Amino acid sequence: MTDTTIQAVVPTSHPIRRLLADWTVTALDGPVPRAVRQHTIPASVPGSVHTDLLAAGLIPDPYLDGNEQLLGWIGLTDWRYTTTFVWQPNSSTQSEIVFDGLDTIATVELNGHRIGVTRNMHRRYRFDLRTHLRAGLNELAVTFSSPIRAADAASLELGYRPHVNHHPYNAIRKMACSFGWDWGIDTSTSGIWRPVALECWATARIESVRPIATVDTLVRADGTARHSGTVAVHVEVARASDADLIVTASVGGVTGSATLNAGQTSAVVTLQVAEVSRWWPRGYGEQPLYAVDVTLHDSGADDAEALELDSAHRRVGFRTVSFDTEPDATGTPFTIAVNGHPVFVRGANWIPDDSFPHRVDRDRYRDRIEQAEFANINLLRVWGGGIFEADDFFELCDDRGMLTWQDFLLACAAYSEEAPLFGEIEAEARDNVARLASHPSLIVLNGNNENLWGHEEWNWKTRLDGKTWGAGYYYELFPRIVAELAPHIGYTPGSPFTPGGIDGLGRDGTLTPNDANNGTMHIWDLWNQRDYPAYREYTPRFVAEFGWQGPPTWSTMRASISDSPLTPESPGMLVHQKAMEGNVKLTDGLLAHYPLPDDIDDWHWAMSLNQANAIGTAIEHFRSLQPHCMGSVVWQLNDCWPVTSWAAVDGYGRPKPLLYAIRHAYADRLVTIQPRAGGTLAAVVVNDEASPWSGELIVRRLTDAGIVLAEHAERVTLPARSTVTVPLPASVSATTDAAAELLRAELSGVRGHWFFAEPRDTRLGAPSLSSSLERVPNGYLLTVTAATLTRDLAVLVDKVDQSARVDDMLITLLAGESAVFSIRSTVELDCATLTAPTVLRSANQLVRPRSRRRG
C-alpha cells in the first residue's frame, strides 16, 4: 500500500519531485473479454494499456501474426489507472501533480475529486492538489476514455474534414499513427506515456528556461574570423508569494542576473560571450556545446543570505540557420545554410521508433542515430503524424551534429481551426517549441505534412464545403509562435511547399505546393504508379519525401509471422502489409527488372534488392543535380513494428539492404553515371567533403567478362562541396550489345556503374564465387572472389545470427575481383554457413529460373 511519501522535517529550498510508482490499471466500459475484466493489472508508468496487458500475460504480442485485429477491443474501451501515495504537511506551500504525457482523453481525480481533464497527448499538464490533498494516504486516479469513440464524437462535434486512413485522427490531439498508417499498426492505445511526478515547493519555482543562442562573426584584417555569442536566457517562474526574486544565469564563464519584483513572473538574462566556437552539422565541423546554468533565489530578508529556490540546466550551440528561397532562372530553390554555408541535405524521414513510444529509451535512440550516421545521413526529419520527439533524441543529435527537422503534428488531413481544437494545438505548439528551442541540431520547424498539397490537389476544397482546414495554423499561428519563442530556427508552413506569395510562405493560394521547380516536393507517383528509373525525369530543388517498399529482414519477418506455408499473400504477411495494393505495387515494380520468384526466400531477396536499387537510383540522380537540387530526404529511416514498408531499418532494429544502398549513395564522395539530354550519358562526380578532390576519372565500357571495349580518361578537379559533370563520348557510352556490356567510372578508387539493360534482359550468369573465412576479434572477415560478373553481392547475416551485423552490402564485382565483408558476431560460424545460397546473395541468383540455379 505504501507508494511515495512526501515529508520534510526541515525547511527546504528546491522543489521536492517524486515520481509516482506502483500503478494499476483496470478496464471499465467497453467490449472487454471476461478474463481481462476480472483483473486489476499492474501498470508501468511510463507505459500503455497494451504493454501492461502484454506484461500481465493477458494478451498476445500485438506485433505478431494477426493479433492486431484480435486486440481491436482495447481502443474501444475506457481504462482507469490508479496509485496511492502518502503525504504529510511540510514546509512546502504548494503541492502539484505533473504529467509529462497523457494519452489522450483523460480525467484526473484525487481522493475521488476531479482535479483536471486533458485532451492532448502532446503537451504537459500540472494540477494543483492542495484542495483535496490530505495527510496520510491519498489515491490518484486517471480515467481514459476510448480514443476511437472520442475521435468519432469529436469529428461529429467539429464537423467532418478529410483525412487518410480509417479513423478521424484529425479530430483529437493523439499521435495520428496510433490509429494505424500505411506502414503502422492500429493500436489506438491509452496510457500515461511519459513520467508523472508529485512536486512540492514554496515561494517560487522555475516554470521554464528557454535559452536562445545567436552568433556574430567579425572578420579581422588578416582574414581570420572571431565569433562572439549572445545567449538570451528566457526564464518563466511560478510564484507562491510576492517576494522579490533573483534569476542568475551563466554560460561560457559569463554570469548575469535579473530581479523579479513582486508580481513579476518572467525575466530575460542576456549574456555576451566574447569568443565562441560555432556548432556545425556532421561532416562540416565540430559540435561544441555550452552549458547554461540557471538558478532562482529569493532576494534575502532582514539581511539574511538569499536562499536558492530552484535551478535548471540546458545546453546551447552557437550556429546560424537560413533558407535560400530567392527565385532564379529555373524557379525557386530551397537551400538550407548553416553558419552561412549551404548544406546538401542527405536526409531520412523519422517516425516513432515503436508504436508504443514509451518503450524507446536513450540507448535505442542512440542505436538508430548511429545507423543513420552509418548511412551517411546528416538530417532526420521528424514526421508530423508521430510525436514531438523526446529530449534524448535531440540531445544525441546535438552531440553528433545530426541536423533535425520537426514537423508540427498535423499530417495528411484537414484540421478544424475552431475551439476546442485550436486551443489545444496552440498549447502543444507553445509547450514543445519552448522545450526544444535550445537544441542547435533543430534547424527546421515545419507546419504540417502534405496538408497544403492535399488542400490544393486532393479535392479537399469540395469536401470541406467552406470549413476551416488549417491555414490559420500554418500561415499565422505557428510562424508567430516560432518568431516569439525560437526565432533562431527556420520555419516552413508545410512539406511540400512552394515559397513565395504574400510573405514568402506561399499562402496566397496561387502557387502549386508540390512543384519540382519550386521549394520542397514529395515524389510518390513512382512507387504508386510508375517504375523507379523515372526518378531521373524529375529535376527537383529539394525532395522531402520519396520511397520504395521492401520487406523487413528475414529474421524479423520469420520472428513476427508464423504462417505455414509463408507466402507473400499468407494471412500474417497481409496483416504486415499496410499499403493499399502494396503487394501488387511490389510485383509491378519488380517485373521490369527481375522475374517474379515463386519461392518465398527468393521473393524476399528480390523485393529487398529492388527497394535498395530504387532508392539508390533516386538519390544518385538527385545528388547529380546539385546545386540545382539541394536536398534528398528518403522515406524512411526506421519502423515502428515489424512490417513491409519503406524503412531502411526494420521494426526490430535490423538494417535492411536499403540502409547499405543509402550509405553508398550518400557517401561524401560519389561517382555516378547519369543520362542527360539527347540520350547521352555523363559521369557525375560529387565531392561533399571540406577538401578538394582531384585526379584522373577513368570511364570504361566493358563486357560482362571484364574485357575493355572503350575508355575515356579525363583529369577532374573538384573544390570542396562541389559537383562536376563529364559528358561521355559516344565511343564509350554507345553500347554494341546491351545485354552483355556495362560502364564503370572510377576516380581515386570511388566507382560508379551503368548497365545498359535491366538484369532480366542481360546474360548475367549464375554466381560463380570462391570464399575464405578468417576469425578476428568480435567476428569474422569473409573474403569473396567472383569468377564472373556478380551484381549486388550481399551477406544476409541475420539469417544465421539475428544479432550479427555486416559492414557492407550490394557490391558489384567483375571477374577476378574480391570483396571483404567484416561481420560482427559472437556466434560460432563457418564459411559454408555464411556462403550458403540463401545467405550469400546476389542479383545473379534472381535472373535465371530457380530450376537452373540449383547446384
What would your notes on this structure say?
Helix content is 20%, strand content 32%. Helix 5 links the parallel strand 22 (345-350) and strand 23 (379-382). Strands 1, 3, 4, 5, 7, 8 and 10 form a seven-stranded mixed beta sheet that branches. Strands 26-25-24-23-22-29 form a six-stranded parallel beta sheet. The protein has 20 helices and 43 strands. The protein has five domains: 5-146 and 190-200, Jelly Rolls; 204-306, Immunoglobulins (Immunoglobulin-like, Sandwich), CATH 2.60.40; 325-665, TIM Barrel (Alpha-Beta Barrel); 669-761, Immunoglobulins (Immunoglobulin-like, Sandwich), CATH 2.60.40.10; 769-853, Sandwich (Immunoglobulin-like). It has 855 residues and is α+β, with helices and mostly antiparallel strands. Residues 36-194 form the Beta-mannosidase-like galactose-binding domain. It holds the Pfam family Glyco_hydro_2. It catalyses: Hydrolysis of terminal, non-reducing beta-D-mannose residues in beta-D-mannosides. Its EC number is 3.2.1.25.
